[in-house]
Amino acid sequence: MTALIRLAAEDGIATLTFDRPEALNALNEAMAIELNAKLARLAHHDEIRAIVLTGAGNAFMAGGDLQTMRAALDTKPVVRDRSIGKLVRLAQTVAETVTGSRKPVIASVNGAVAGFGLSLVAACDLAIAAKSATFTSAYGRIGTSPDGGATYTLPRALGTKQAAQWMYLDERHTADEALRAGFVNWVVPDDDLTAQTRALLKRMGALSPDAFAQTKNLIQHAPERSFAEHLYAEQRSFLHCAAGDDFREGIDAFFDKRAPVFGAGAG
Predict the structure, then answer these.
(1) 151-175 pLDDT tens trace
(2) Does residue 262 contact residue 241 with C-beta atoms inside 8 Å?
(3) I need a labelling partner for 25 at 20 to 30 A (CA). Which of 137, 147, 205, 235 fits?
(4) Which residues, at least 6 apart from 10, have a Cβ–Cβ distance to it below 8 Å?
(5) 41-73 pLDDT, tens per residue?
(6) 170-209 as b/e, with b when 16 or more CB fall inside 10 Å?
(7) What is the DSSP track for 91-117?
(8) Following CA atoms 250, 253, 259, 260 in sequence, which dihedral angle do they give, to the nearest 10 degrees?
(9) Is residue 102 domain-shared with residue 44, that is, in the same domain?
């Protein structure tokens, strides 16, 4: 069976490329299963320090596979719900795996983003986009509500009012507009996307993996805590890091006036 997700690993960076360019990399069941399996495997691979998600061809990901959904609509309700429900659950698992990853997951956005593709970019830790990339919710245009955590992650990234505008009106946004809105971190020339993504990951690779994981966890859980509760959570995370080898290495490197060399993290 031909892989729908190409995996390439080099210098501690794993790149997962969605490889259904003829369908604008729309997520079908087989692709979702393969993506979940590869993300799970990379999570336990000690030599991999960061994960990049990108697309083949002119799209990053144009949402879920509408052919699958259209076929399901012509079946009995119980079969329809089972078929569409399975694809949605698989997509939800992808988003949950990305947000729960202790390793940085970077969206390297090469082209069109729509539907679940938008949810997936929002779930990533950082996003770098090609100048020609475009972003749209698209859910309203097909008569459904968002999935993949979009109604959770977009308000956090954009603010409630702007997230509502993106999802209610299904507007198509340029990469520069997404940058100004705070949805992506960087916009680069199309021909420079791969090199700039590698440069970003090189910078991140110099940081402590365990400190990254603790910081990500704190950021994600901050909205659900009171300020006092969050201060306590920060204290626990700081002490967790202080008990590890990376903290000692960081302190020693500071006084030795050299760059620190951190380990693989706490898994």
Answers:
(1) 999 999 999 999 999 999 999 999 9
(2) no
(3) 205
(4) none
(5) 998 898 899 999 999 999 999 999 899 899 999
(6) eeebebeebbebebbbebbeeeebbebbbebbeebeebbb
(7) HHHHHHHHHH-SS-EEEEE-SEEETHH
(8) -40
(9) yes
**CA distances for 1 relative to 4, 5, 19, 23, 31, angstroms:** 9, 12, 13, 17, 12
Q: Copy the structure tokens of residue 200.
A: 């970003």
* Beta strand ranges found along the chain (DSSP E): 5-10, 13-18, 50-55, 59-62, 105-109, 112-114, 126-130, 134-136, 173-174, 186-188
Q: Are 63 and 113 in contact (CB under 8 A)?
A: no
Give ∠ CA 43-22-99 in degrees, rounded to 5.
25
Please indicate, yes or no, if residue 263 is contained in any of the structural domains.
no
Q: Between the CA of residue 259 and those of 205, 217, 243, 250, 253, what are the distances in Å?
A: 12, 25, 20, 8, 6
Angstrom distance (rounded) from CA 103 to CA 126:
12
Is this structure's pTM higher than 0.90?
yes
One domain, residues 14 and 49: yes
Contact yes or no for 212/104 (Cβ under 8 A): yes
